[in-house]
Every structure is written in structure tokens, then in C-alpha cells.
């Protein structure tokens, strides 16, 4: 515990931690697979970017192998060399951490904080691409993300067929209770977070079964469920505006099946009159393998439009139309791909903090967003969720997350101990989840 009452940051310096396992076993595998993918895709890439990009491709593969060596041998992190509006921020942060360290040395792979080193890892990969101008725009994980969507296509079909039924019912006014629909789609988006590519070190991990059939079976694995408070806050905001629905934001996580589940939630919010517009926040660069960029978002809608399943193509075109008419908006602020936790947002990106403050409700999807909400620290699991936010509160917020990192707050006292008896690796298996809400920071 630090002197400020905030527990220590997670770090690979603790050998039993998931952070250690990540640096020791996951990151090197991700690098080897990324280099391997580039070799295998060489012909396709050169067809798209031109044969004269061959040397640059070789250069990127070389940089990736060098980074793998540096991670494995615990070398210090190096300043970024490429371009990009965020380079100065990254290099200043590296210099600040170097100056603040006991021996005046830069952070190293096995001793830095987990959040910093893992964000740096993905930013460094992007740096290599930025140093190769002929390959500008190449997404090192693009292929894996598209495969993940294609492999979950049957689950996408059944989910969107069901969404069509529900939204048609809502239009006719003969639908089930809105509370029930809201809760159902919240759980769909929650469990959509089980299948990301980073946790499986980039190997195939897509949703094969129909998620709707699994909801009741998965329900006992939701360790904190603030669905009712989330919905009532949304309704109170509307009542305060004499019934007018307002803006809801979804801070997205992964492409593929999870993105479709998040867009279903966005559609339900509008169809049920709980929101008048939804702002979707994605990443400005490829991130943690499967996170959604604007390119992934557009590809998903285009691919949906081109399929011959009625529901899938219907929502593909409807969602494109939503983007045109403005009931949906896609944003990719550079703060989401910086190494900072969200308690630092107000100082580092006031514009984003103020923008989020315009919403009635913010959804934060997934594990990395959760880690950034709670500062990636070693909390006692019974710490109230609002306390773990350490002052971050642009608007009422709800996190939907499958546990894939060893940090959690907001659980009832004793629950963590109970679950650990059922599954030893409960904090990182993705089998358990939380729906955690914070209305305001006052106790
Ligand atoms: O944010 P997401 O996509 O839910 O998860 C990202 C993730 O796979 O990456 C980290 C480990 O590398 C973990 O925190 C987490 O499991
Ligand atoms: Mn992710």
C-alpha cells in the first residue's frame, strides 16, 4: 500500500503475477506470431502496397525480432523514433520515468509497471510501421481481426436475427419489458468481452456458440451486477430533461464478435428510447491486438452489408445510415492509446474528459479499460468500485468486463475468496465478469 492509501501498481517484478506471465510468456509469442504473419502475408501486402515496399517489410520484421530479444533479456525501453502527434508525450514520459527511478535508468521490461510496459509494447510496434512510409496504414493485426469476425459469423447471425425480432417488437409496442431487454443486451456485450485475441496471444479465440443461449448459464459468473442502478441513472437523467433521451457513450474494446455485441447495445439504447445518440470511442492505432480502429469499424459494417443474411445486411446498412445521420458517432482520441490510467485523463486530455462529461452515461468495455479505470493496482477486491476510480468521474459510468487481469474491486466481502476456491485462476480466465457502476464519487 502506498502512502496515499492507494495500493501498488501491478508489475512483472512479482513472479506469481499475470504481468510476469505476460512479459515472460505472452509478449514474446505475440511478437513471434506477428513477424511470422508478416512473412506469410508478404505477397498480399506487397500486392497492396507495391513491390518496392519489400525492404520496409523486412525492416519491420527485423525491428520486431529485435524487440523480442529486448523483452526477453530485460533491456531498457527506448525512445520512439517515428512520427505521430503523440511521440513527444511518450518520449517525455520515458524521460520522466528515467529521471524518477532510483538509479537514473530507463524502465525495463521486467521491472516497469505492467500498464506502462504493455502500452509501450503496442506503441513501439506502431512506431516500426511509422518508420516505413511505403507501408503507411498497415495494421499488423488486421488479418487476425478479420479472421476473428469471420470465425464468429454464425454467432453474429443468430445475435442479429434476435436483435431484429426485438427491435421490430419495440416498434410495434408489443415488446417485452425494456428493463429485461436492456439487461439482456448488457450481458451480451459483457460476455462479448470473453473473446479477445490478446488474452490468447493472438491465436484464434472467437465466439462459436450463440451467446444468447449461454446467458442464463453464465449469470452466476457475474460477480458484481449493477444493471439496475445503471438503468435507473439513465432514466433519471431523462426525467430531469422532461423525458428527452440524451447521449450515451461506449468506450469500445475489441473488434470481431465483441464489436457486434457493443453495436447491438447501442442499437437497443436508441430503439428503446434510452438514448438519442451514441458516441463510440475506438483506438487511433492498432492496440492490444484486437482493439477496434476506424478501419476495423468500417470493415465490419461493409462486410455485414455484403452478406446475404437478411438481419446481418439490414443492420449493416442501418448502422452505416446511423453514422451518416449522426445518431452514432465514431471517435478515436489519442489518449486511449497513451499509457496513462483514467485518473490522469483530466490533466492529460481535458478535451476528452469534458467531452465524456456531455454524456448521461458512459460504458467502458473490457479488461484494459477496467485496468485503466482502477489504475491497474493491487486492490483488495472488496474496495468499493467508486473508490478504485480515484477521482475519475466525467459522468456516471458502467464497466462491462470479463476478468482477464489480476485486479478487481467492487466485490462483496468474502466473494473473491469463495470464487478462488471454485477456480484458481479466476482473475485471468475470462470465465468471470463484473458489471460495475459508479453514479457519483460521493460516498
Ligand atoms: O481489454 P481486453 O481486450 O478485454 O483484454 C486485454 C487483455 O487481453 O490484455 C491484457 C493482457 O495482455 C489483459 O489485461 C487482458 O486480458
Ligand atoms: Mn482489447
Describe this structure in words.
It contains 18 helices and seven strands. It is of the alpha/beta class. α11 (257-271) links the parallel β2 (246-251) and β3. α8 (178-192) runs antiparallel to α11 (257-271) and α12 packs across α13. It is globular. Residues 197-201 have low confidence and may be disordered. 1-O-phosphono-beta-D-fructofuranose binds next to α16.
Number of discrete helical segments: 18
Order of helices and strands: HHHHHHHHHEHEHEHHEHHEHHEHE
Q: Return Rg in Å.
A: 21 Å
- Cofactors and ligands present? 1-O-phosphono-beta-D-fructofuranose, manganese (II) ion
Query: Which regions are unreliable across 5 or more consecutive residues at pLDDT < 50?
Result: 197-201
Largest sheet features:
7 strands, mixed
Give the terminus-to-terminus CA distance. 22 Å
Mean pLDDT: 94
Output the structural class.
Answer: alpha/beta
Number of strands: 7
Strand order of the largest sheet: 1-7-6-5-2-3-4
Oligomer: single chain
Protein name: Sugar phosphate phosphatase
Domain Damage-control phosphatase ARMT1-like metal-binding: 22-418
Cofactor: Mn(2+); Ni(2+)
EC number: 2.1.1.-, 3.1.3.-
